[in-house]
Amino acid sequence: MSVNENLSVHGLIVQLPLDSINRIDTELITNAVSPDKDVDGLSCINAGKLSRGDLNDCFIPCTPNGCMELIRQTGVSVAGKHGVVIGRSKIVGAPMHDLLLWNHATVTTCHSKTPDLPEQVGRADILVVGAGRAEMVRGEWVKEGAVVIDCGINHVPDETKASGKRVVGDVHYASANQRAGFITPVPGGVGPMTVAMLMENTVQSAQRFLLRSQSHR
Fold this sequence. Notes:
hydrolase, THF_DH/CycHdrlase_NAD-bd_dom, NAD(P)-bd_dom_sf, Rossmann fold, two-stranded antiparallel ribbon, globular, single chain, 2 domains, alpha/beta, 7 strands, oxidoreductase
């Protein structure tokens, strides 16, 4: 790819999902991006480094990175806490598990085959939800005082809206808000942080390229 070789380009992202009437191998496309410019952190090389705990030598996916920043802003230490992640996607769930783990939380990952989801959620000091199911996590499941990060974006019918629908997360906000110590709204919570982390990764990439070019002079 010519963009990989272009020294004036410091960040490259692939907008997913890839829309086409023909099947496209997403892994093939995302792995074609140079790991040094993969500011979305989706290539297998960056994902592998993250899974091994090499956090200072990879680009971290933007949504999980934004979630970690939101947790930091609460003042709640991740170390020693029980983190529960719902969802195991390559973009959110899997890297979120790795980030919590390497920041010294004890982590449980839940998914569609988890039989006792309310019980698992009830153990979470830090709960991150990225399952893609509207308001699936009920407030009564949530541990009193827990940090709840909702990565879900779902559309549900709402006749009061001009569009006939409204956006909700994967957590039932009204009930969870009664028990959580901190909780993100949808929309307006994780989304803006994802964009901010993408910009941060791009700036870091530019700085690395500039330092390399100076050292080669």
